Amino acid sequence: MKRFKNIWIFSDSIAGHEIQSVSLAEQLSDNVSIHHCTIRQPWLSFAPRRLPRFGRNIIWKSSQPNLSQSVDVIITCGRRMAAVGKHFKKLLQCIHIQILNPGDGVEKYDLLICPEHDNQKGRNILSIKGSLHPISTQFLSNFDCSKISQQSVGLFLGNPFSKFFEQLESMKQQIAQSFPEHHVYVCGSRRTPKSESNRIRKVFSNSRNVWLGDDDGENPYLSMLTCCEVLVVTADSINMVSEACAIDKNVIVIAESEASPKHQRFIHSIKERLSTFEQLKSDVEPLETLNKLTKQVLNFFSENP
Q1: What is the mean pLDDT of each run of 10 residues along the chain (305 residues)?
Q2: CB 100 within 8 A of CB 126
C-alpha cells in the first residue's frame, strides 16, 4: 500500500488531540509537519463552520505554513482544527482527514475517524476503539525499570466524578487486599483536580511514588506503563485506558459507574480486554488500534483515489 509523501497537521496544542494526529500521520508518511495555531473570536465559537474572513483570523503560534509546498494530506483533530483543515484543503486541493466527530456534515471531509462508541456510520467514516497513540509493547521496550518494583500496581488518575476522591481510602484498601505483596505507584494527569492533591498524597503517603504535576519531578507515566505489573485506570480518561490496553498488562478500570454514557460505551466495548480486582487475565492480548487503522486508511484511499 502506497504511503503519502507529505502530511500537514494543524494543532491547537491540546495534547490529547495532537497525539492522535501525530500518531496517525507518522504511520502514513515520513514527512510530517505540525502547524500550531488558534482562532480569534467569534470565528472560534462557530468552528467547525467558517465565517467570512476566516483565514485572516487564524493566529499562528509560529510561522505561517508555506502554501507553495506540495501537500498530500491534512490531518486535524477536534472541531476547532476541523475548521482550519477545511480552509486549507480548499486552498491546497489536498486530502483532509479529520479525527473525532466535529459536529457538522461528514461529507465535508475526505475521511472522518471516530471512536466506535460515538456510533457514527458512513461511507467515509472509519471507527476505532478508544483513541490513537503510539503506545505499544515495542514502543516501551527500552524504558528502564530499575526505579520501579516488578511487583507493583500503577494507579492512573484522570478527573473522575468528585465523590471518587472521597472514596480513595477504600480504593487503597481494595488494591492492598487484591495485591498484598505489591508496591503502589500513583500518577495523576493534566485533568486531575489540583484541589484534591493533598487528599491523594495523604491517602497514598506510603506509596513508592505519587506524581501529580511538574513539581514532583519527571512524569513517571510511561515508566509505570512499562514496569508495573497491573494497571488501574479511572474510566473518565479514554486516552489513558486506551494506552494501558495497548500493551500486554492486566488493566482494571475503576469509577466506571459514574462515567458518562459515552465513556461507559467505550469501556463496554473492550470488556473482554479488561481484568478485575477479583480475576486477572493469564493471557493478555493488546489492543492494536493504530496499526489496524493505518491499513484501513491506506486501503480507503487506494480504493477511493
Answers
A1: 91 95 97 97 97 97 91 97 98 97 93 91 94 94 86 95 91 96 95 94 93 93 95 96 96 92 92 95 91 95 88
A2: no
Give how far Cα 200 sits from Cα of 56, 157, 183, 258, Å: 46, 10, 16, 19
Q: E strands within the chain?
A: 7-11, 32-39, 58-60, 73-77, 95-99, 111-115, 125-128, 152-156, 183-187, 209-211, 230-234, 250-254
CB atoms < 10 A from the CB of 13, how many?
11
* H runs (alpha helix) in the chain: 15-28, 43-46, 79-92, 168-178, 197-203, 221-227, 238-245, 261-269, 289-303
CA–CA gap between residue 6 and residue 111 (Å, rounded) = 17
User: Rounded to an integer, what distance in angstroms lies between the CA atom of residue 17 and that of residue 155?
Assistant: 23
Cell numbers placing 38 = 488558534
Which residue's entry shows cell 479525527?
A: 99
User: CB of 294 within 8 A of CB of 133?
Assistant: no
